[in-house]
Known about the structure:
- There is one protein chain.
- By secondary structure, the protein is mainly alpha-helical.
- Helix content is about 80%, strand content about 0%.
- It contains 4 helices and no strands.
Amino acid sequence: MASILTSAIIVNSKSSVSTYVSTAQQLYSELQSVINNLTASGFMGDAADGYKEFFNTKVTPAVVANLTEPQGSITAGLNGMLDTIKEQLLDSVDPGLGKMNQDPGKG
């Protein structure tokens, strides 16, 4: 089934990306808090250090740099693509052309 791309679809898509980013940031903060609490007391030594290092060198870049950063992340790229689609496919179309196409020969 065909659908018509509208500015509202782009706005809704960007809103969904924003919600995804906010949720990922919230979950990351919760996980970071759990890791910090766990390794602050009662869990010390090489195992705890390894746990923190894994979180800092693997989990943090995966979630922050690759997923939620406002510049250079996957979600930032997705928002950029949505902006480009809107600018090149929707904003550049002459609304008068649509009217002329609806009633050819009278324009």
